[in-house]
Each structure stands twice: as structure tokens, then as C-alpha cells.
């Protein structure tokens, strides 16, 4: 949907032959995406490789072939574009994550997630920035502005939530998944806020007012983005429930859900909020209310369509990063000093690892202090996994680096080119090497429980009908909650002993009494006159 | 998916604020699309208005409001872009049409459809061109090139298959639907070929060789496009069947089907073929083979996703045409001579009506000669309906007109601006006025059979589970075919008396013996190890 943008694009199409190369490059991409899907399917049982790494390697290979065929002149079949990434590829991924996330797990660990995502990212940012100033300052890399060093901190404190989603399994390691992924979402928002702050605030005369201003800015952004996402989600639920959409057409329901999800992201961007947070919460609300108000067919359709779109976008990003990495023009600049480039990349990787360790272990300790039961605490092995799973850097880092180190569309300045190539090196290395080691590491450190393992082997596909049913029961199964052994003491005592649970208890009461009668949801599906309604509990799909 | 294109687009996104208007315009469009869907739903029972007209009117209204707010300076929130239309909006619509078309009806009337689509479009083209040369020549409109007049013929012989889809009902009037829609698809291809021929052939020294060359060109295009579409469809069926995709993930199946469908269109464009024909036949093959090889969930998902995407694209086009129509710059040129503009539009509309009448009635007569049974013949009322339903002109005409009458992105030349505004007038008038009258006209001329009417009132939604089941049985129910009273005579006699049926009979034998065992299809669903397979015949959805 390029709209007014599309008009600026050079004309081609069926009729004119002017920009035939554009069709060719879209064509190439579609073919490569198909190849990645088929290869990913064939490698499914492999314990080392996952789809991201396949896509990244295929991207690198294709870039190399293009380089060869153009005789080392250019692999410029495409240039990394922030728009493409932020406007078209990221929203479906994050929305789907919100739509499919196990809400109970997410909200139960909400405080820990916020601690990791906001405070942790700040710690990580400080350490990477300090490390960059100290260590990179010793090598003469040509960066003079303090803002550039701080930007490096923001760029490399953005973890790759896309890669995390592929590496961890929601069914096998629910706690880890919700912590690492939830952290990733909040982390995205935090690093973008940090990055914006660095670009707009006066960094030379830093004082308490600026820090306060910055904190207020973050809280404002977090709050308004969430409200916007929740609001859009509730609006979609309200409209679909009260106008009986299912009566006439399932297509309208599906279309409306897609459009409103995308609209929430666009609105956030329009008001300079965090689209990532907005669309994530919109996904959560839509799966809690809207999804239950639509017909059976629409439920299956939306569930799988969102997953498939997100899947395509993920592969696309890795393919894209892989192909872009071989852009010869950027590498030309560092030809004279390869050693320096390796040094910079290693320093950055080192600070990233130290920066992440510096918050995962202390904050896990803090979080464990507030938990009463052992099974709720984050074990040391789990802490190592959290630390490791967040080391990968991906497309968000790339996009931020391009934004900071590109002057009017070019990376011609020597020091900028060096920073871009270093970013690419870090992204490639962390995704491929750390990514390859993650699956074996997790299965070594955190062996999944037998029962869960059995279930997940029954439905190795996370959206197969069986796990779909399981997700249904797991996500919204309020009835099943009592089995976790929470007694029903007086509310004041509850609030002291387990605040999160108490909040959850009152939320459920509020949800059942006010929200669900108004916005629909499980058990509050409206009667659709004239449509072939089925008992949702009998035919869950 | 803009890829290399996207790089050329002015930068915006979360971080920079440079091109915030682009986000705003995408946002506006998403909002309007939602509004159209909700209003279309509310007006569902209205017998006059349909979704296209709603979208067109909302588009006009929005354009008007923008004009007002910018103080009559510009409604330039977007410019009609051929790329957007041909690369992103048209493929899902045509693919979905092929995917959901009742194949038996389509192939039974194949000869009539080809007659209408190819020969009919040529007749229509000749009459409109002649009419333009004779009548428009009398008014001094400034067109001197014979090519411009012939281009007008090609532009206005392209019917609007999108609008047809919304007006006719596949369940109520299956014969009419397959004739008018099938004609529309072939017509699209023919008029694009004609248009290309006019732009590239030497039209001054026209002789028999050129006509022969032209005919060969058309046949080549038709044949290769069909082969490409069928080939891509079969490849997807083969891959999904033989690699047991359903074993691991339904998302991969859905993604692969989407990508390969789009790939077929892109490949056709890449090789300068007719993408419309290719993607249409790809849709037919995918629904006949691939669709049966995937899991239950994937079947429901693809069915509804393709329908929803097509639905969104359709509304988008009408909204777009409506908003673009009020672009003040184009209308400025005709301010001094409004009478002339009205005259041109009326002449074009007149020739369009005559041109269509000139082939619908004679060709229906010809087609009726070859039919033995009365119920197979096209009645006079049906002929009038076919004539009427094809009078609407839509986005294809707009796109072709912009291509012909736009010089380097501008419509500044007076005569070009006049032709563009005339095209807009014809498109708006035919869509709104003819469109509004079509529903009542059809229900007056061709009252649907009682049984069918009853069925369709049960499932007014054309993709509700019930009609989905009906479509399944109707589409692929080879068993039910014998009830139409075809005896099994010797093959030679059959070939003489009813050639289409004979072809169908041998096709079925070939399909059952060779194609379906290789590519899957109903009754040949592969056993998927480890997946929850259900009996497809018991649970058709």
C-alpha cells in the first residue's frame, strides 16, 4: 500500500517497460522466500539450524551470486530501507506475537518483564555507551560526537525479538518465552525512545532536568501507546459484536480485523508514539475479545493468516539483511583497515555481552526476592538462557544504525561506512553463531518437562489444531487457574503476599462483570441471527 | 513489498519526521476502508447500493472534504498509480476469482466465454474506435494521432470485472456469472494486448501482415500465460503434496500458497505476458489440486484469506478512483469548455453501449446455435443482462487512460487533461448509475429459481460454511454430473453432438488417472504422518 508514495516510484507494470528491474527484484525475492520456506521445512528436525539462519545464509549466497554476475561491481538489487522494515515488515510480526502470546504467563510476569525491558535496557545502554567511549576512543575511528557513542549504545541495546520467537518454544519453556519475548517488546520501545532522545536532546549540558524530562517522556510514550492499542482493539471488538458482522460475511470480519490492527500501528506512528507497543497490545486485546466475537471460520482464518503473514515478514527480514550485507560499496571503505573493523566489531560484541549480563543476573535476583514459591523463581540455568537468548541483534539495530550513520542517503563518509559495516558484522555474527548455539544450549540448560515435551511432540506445529485447542484452554482458561494452588484469602492479605495475583483476581472480576458483556469474549459470543452457529466449546476449531 | 523501490521512497518511519504525510495518508486510507466495510455491512440488505458504490461515494466525499480544507487548492493526497493498481491491487482480485470460480460452469461455457472475451472485445474495440474517429472528429478535441483514437477503443473496451463480481451472484445466476465474469477476464487480457499493439505497431501502414502478426501475438500471449499459470499452480501442488508440508506447519502451507500465487503473476509480468490470465489459471489449478493437499485449517484459512484480500483490494480501488476523480488540477483545464467535455463523455458512453450490443446479441445467437437443450441456451433476458452487466468501466480503463494520456507524469497538455477527465466521468457515471440499476434490473429480468433463492437466503454470504459446502460439491463433484442427463454414447458421436462435454469426459479420465495421483486433489489427499488427519469427505470444512 504505497498510496501517494507509489506515485513517485518509477513507472512500470504490464504496459510500460521502463522499470522492469523492479518487477525482476520482487520476483527474485518471492522465489527466494519460497525456497526458504521449503528448505526450512526440510530442515525442521535439525537441532542446529532454524528458519532465520537459513534465510540469512540464502540471502548472503544470493548477494554473492549477484556480486559475481555483476563482476564485483554491485549487489545493489536492493538497499536496506527503514520504511519497508518499520511500516510493512515489523507490524505483522509484533501484532502476531501479541495475538498468539499466552496472556496469563505474560501478565503474571508483567513486573519482571517491565524490569528487564525498561530498567535492563537502560543498564545495557549505559554499559555499551561507556564501553564504546572508553574502548573505541582508544582506536582512532573518527567519531568525535558524544551523540554518536550514545547512539551506539541505543543501537546495540535493541535485542532481536524476531529471532527470539524462532528460537524459544512457547509450549516447552513458557516462563522463559514470556520473559525473553516480553522483554524484547518493551526493549524495542525503550531503545527507540532512547535513540530519539539522543537525537533530539541536548547531550552536552546533561543535568537532572533533562533526565527527568526523559523519564517523563518514556512514561508518556508507554502509557499512550498502550491506551491506543487497547482502544483500537476494544473498538474492533465492540463494532463486530454489536453489528453482528458474522450474519452476512466472514470476509468482512477478517478484513476489518486486519485493517484495524494495521490502523493501530499507523495511528501510533502518526502521533509519534511507539507503534510496536501499540500493535502488541492491540493484538492481545483482539485475541481476548474480538477473536471470540467472529464466526468459526474467521477464527481459524485470522489465527493462521496473522501467523503466516508474520512468518513471511520474518523470513523476508533475514533474507534482506543477508543480501544487504554484501553491498560492496560499504565494504570498500574498510578494505585498507580490516583489522580495525574486526576490532570494532569485537569490542561492540563484548560490551553487548557484558551489558546484558550486567542486568539479567542482578534483576533476576531482585525478581526472585518477590516470589514465594520455588517454581516461580528464575533458576540460574534459566538466567543464563535469558542472557544468551537476548544477545542476538537484528533488523532493529540495522535500521537504527542506518538512521544514525547515513547522511542524505549515502554512507560515503569513511567513519560512517565503518560503523555500518561493523553493525552488519555484529548482526550477522550474533544471529548465525549465537543463533546456531541457542537450540542446543537451551535443551542442555533447560530440559523441558516430560509432560510438556510429550504434548509438544504430539503437535510439533505450534498452530496445529491440537495446540490451537491447548492455546485456547491455556490462554483464556480462567477455570483452570485454581489448580495452581492459590487459596482465596482475604483481599488485603492477598495484596501483600502476591500482588500480581491479586491484580489478576480483580481484573477477572471486572472482565466478567463489565468488559466481556460489552465487548464479547469467551462465553459472551453474541447470537448471530441467520448464521450457522455452532457451539464454540464443542468445535473449538 | 517495495524492495528496491522502497529505497527510493522518501524516508520516514518511527525515527525521522520528514515524510509524515505519507503515514497520514496511509492512515486515512485504512480508516476509510474500515468505514466502507462497516457501511457496506449495514447496507447489505439494500437492493440498490453495493460496496463498490459506497466506496466510490465515500472516496468522492473525502476528496471533496480535502478540497474544502485545502481551500480548493488540491485534493492531491494521492495520485492514481498504475503500479499500485497492477502490481498490488489487481492480482489478489483476479486470483481469488479463479480460486472461487465454479470450475464446471466455467469450462462448460469455455467456448462461449472465449467468443465473448476475444472476438467480442475486438468487435467492441472496432466500433468504439470508429465511433470516436467519426463523432469525436467532428468536435475539435485536439487529438490528431490515429493512435489516440484507437487507444480510446482499447481503453473503453476493457470492462470492469471487479464491479461485475459484486453485482452478479454465483449461486443465484451461475450461467450469467460464469459468462460475464469469464468474459471479463479474457477481455482484460485482450484489451491490454490491443493497447500494447497500438502503442508498438506501426498504425499508419496497416496491412494484412500486421493483422496476422497481431493475431499471432494474441494467441502466443494467451497460450503462454495460461501455461505459466497452470505450471505454477501444479508446482505448488506437487511440492506441498510430496514434501508432506502439513506435518510440521500449516503456516508454511498458507505462506507458500500465497507466495506462489503472487509469484505466478510477477513471472508473467517479468516475461511481458498477461499476468491477469496467468494468475486466474493459477487460482483455478490451486483450488483443484493444491487446496486439497493442505490441512483442514489451511483450507479454511486460504479460502477466507484470499477472499478477504480480494475484498480489501476491491474496496481500495473504488475508494481510490473516487478520491482521484476530484483532483482539481485536471478539471481546471476543462473549466472553459464544460459543454465539450459532457459531449465527449456522452459520445464515449454511447459508443460503449452500441459496441457491446454489437457483439453480445449476435454472438449469443451463434452460441445458441451450438446448444441442443433449451436450458443451455442464453435467453433474450439473459442477453440483455450480459449486455448491461458489462457496460461498467473501472480501474483498468483508468489505468490505461493514464498510461496513454500522461506525458512524463503530468496531464498538463489541454487535450490530454480533457481525455482523462472524460474517462473519469465515464467511469463514475457507468459505475454509479449503471451499477445502481443493475441489481433491480437483474432481479426483474432473471428471477432466480426458487430452490436456489431459498438456498441463497439461507446463506446470503457467498463464503459462509453452507455455500462453501455447496461450492465444494458444485466445483469438484464429478459424481453429481451424470444427473444432467448426459448419456454415454460412443465417443465419436459425442464429439459431434456436444464437444465441450466430450472434452470434459476425457479430461476427467485423464485427471483421475494421471494428474490427481501426481498432484493430489479431492480423494487423493496424501497421508500426513503425525498430523491429526480427518476424513475430508466427512468434514468438508
UniProtKB/TrEMBL annotation, chains A, B:
GO terms for cellular component: plasma membrane. Pfam families: Na_H_Exchanger. InterPro entries: Cation/H_exchanger_CPA1, Cation/H_exchanger_TM, NaH_exchanger. Keywords: Antiport, Ion transport, Membrane, Potassium, Potassium transport, Sodium, Sodium transport, Transmembrane, Transmembrane helix, Transport. It is a multi-pass membrane protein. It catalyses: Na(+)(in) + H(+)(out) = Na(+)(out) + H(+)(in); K(+)(in) + H(+)(out) = K(+)(out) + H(+)(in). One of its GO terms (biological process) is regulation of intracellular pH. It is found in: Membrane. NCBIfam families: b_cpa1. PANTHER family: SODIUM/HYDROGEN EXCHANGER (PTHR10110), SODIUM_HYDROGEN EXCHANGER 2 (PTHR10110:SF117). This is Sodium/hydrogen exchanger. It comes from Zostera marina (Eelgrass).
Amino acid at each position: 500500500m504505497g498510496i501517494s508514495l507509489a506515485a513517485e516510484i518509477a513507472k512500470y507494470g504490464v504496459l510500460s517497460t521502463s522499470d522492469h528491474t523492479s518487477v525482476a527484484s520482487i520476483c527474485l525475492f518471492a522465489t527466494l522466500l519460497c525456497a526458504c520456506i521449503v528448505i526450512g521445512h526440510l530442515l525442521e528436525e535439525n537441532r542446529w539450524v532454524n528458519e532465520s539462519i537459513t534465510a540469512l545464509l540464502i540471502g548472503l549466497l544470493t548477494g554473492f551470486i549477484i556480486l559475481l554476475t555483476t563482476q564485483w561491481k554491485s549487489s545493489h538489487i536492493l538497499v536496506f530501507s527503514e520504511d519497508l522494515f518499520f511500516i510493512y515488515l515489523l507490524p505483522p510480526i509484533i501484532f502476531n506475537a501479541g495475538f498468539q502470546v499466552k496472556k496469563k504467563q505474560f501478565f503474571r510476569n508483567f513486573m519482571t518483564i517491565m524490569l528487564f525491558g525498561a530498567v535492563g535496557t537502560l543498564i545495557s545502554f549505559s554499559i555499551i555507551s561507556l564501553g564504546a567511549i572508553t574502548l573505541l576512543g582508544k582506536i582512532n575511528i573518527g567519531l568525535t560526537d558524544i551523540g554518536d557513542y550514545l547512539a551506539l549504545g541505543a543501537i546495540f541495546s535493541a535485542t532481536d525479538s524476531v529471532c527470539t520467537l524462532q528460537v524459544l518454544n512457547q509450549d516447552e519453556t513458557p516462563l522463559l518465552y514470556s520473559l525473553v519475548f516480553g522483554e524484547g517488546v518493551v526493549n524495542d520501545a525503550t531503545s527507540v525512545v532512547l535513540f530519539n532522545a539522543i537525537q533530539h536532546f541536548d547531550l552536552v549540558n546533561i543535568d537532572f532536568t533533562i533526565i527527568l524530562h526523559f523519564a517523563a517522556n518514556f512514561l508518556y510514550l508507554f502509557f499512550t501507546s498502550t491506551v491506543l492499542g487497547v482502544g483500537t482493539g476494544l473498538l474492533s471488538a465492540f463494532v463486530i459484536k454489536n453489528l453482528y458482522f458474522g450474519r452476512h460475511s466472514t470476509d468482512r470480519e477478517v478484513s476489518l480485523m486486519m485493517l484495524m490492527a494495521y490502523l493501530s500501528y499507523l495511528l501510533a506512528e502518526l502521533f509519534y508514539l511507539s507503534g510496536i507497543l501499540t500493535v502488541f497490545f492491540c493484538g492481545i486485546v483482539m485475541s481476548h475479545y474480538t477473536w471470540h466475537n467472529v464466526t468459526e471460520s474467521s477464527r481459524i482464518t485470522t489465527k493462521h493468516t496473522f501467523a503466516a503473514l508474520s512468518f513471511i515478514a520474518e523470513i523476508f527480514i533475514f533474507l534482506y539483511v543477508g543480501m544487504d550485507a554484501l553491498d560492496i560499496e560499504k565494504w570498500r571503505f574498510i578494505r585498507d583497515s580490516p583489522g580495525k573493523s574486526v576490532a570494532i566489531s569485537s569490542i561492540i560484541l563484548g560490551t553487548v555481552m557484558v551489558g546484558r549480563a550486567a542486568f539479567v543476573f542482578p534483576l533476576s535476583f531482585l525478581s526472585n526476592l518477590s516470589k514465594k514459591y520455588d517454581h516461580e523463581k528464575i533458576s540460574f540455568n534459566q538466567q543464563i538462557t535469558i542472557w544468551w537468548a537476548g544477545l542476538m541483534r537484528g533488523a532493529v539495530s540495522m535500521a537504527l544504525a542506518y538512521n544514525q550513520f547515513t547522511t542524505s542517503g549515502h554512507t560515503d563518509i569513511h567513519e560512517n561506512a565503518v560503523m555500518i559495516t561493523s553493525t552488519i558484522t555484529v548482526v550477522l555474527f550474533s544471529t548465525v553463531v549465537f543463533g546456531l548455539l541457542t537450540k542446543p544450549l537451551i535443551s542442555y540448560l533447560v530440559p523441558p518437562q516430560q509432560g510438556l515435551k510429550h504434548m509438544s511432540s504430539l503437535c510439533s506445529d505450534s498452530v496445529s489444531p491440537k495446540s490451537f485447542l491447548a492455546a485456547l484452554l491455556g490462554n483464556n482458561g480462567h477455570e483452570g487457574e485454581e489448580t495452581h494452588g492459590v487459596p482465596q484469602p482475604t483481599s488485603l492479605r492477598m495484596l501483600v503476599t502476591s500482588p500480581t495475583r491479586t491484580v489478576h483476581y480483580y481484573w477477572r472480576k471486572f472482565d466478567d462483570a463489565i468488559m466481556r458483556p460489552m465487548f464479547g469474549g469467551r462465553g459472551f459470543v453474541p447470537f448471530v441471527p441467520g448464521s450457522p452457529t455452532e457451539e464454540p466449546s464443542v468445535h473449538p476449531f
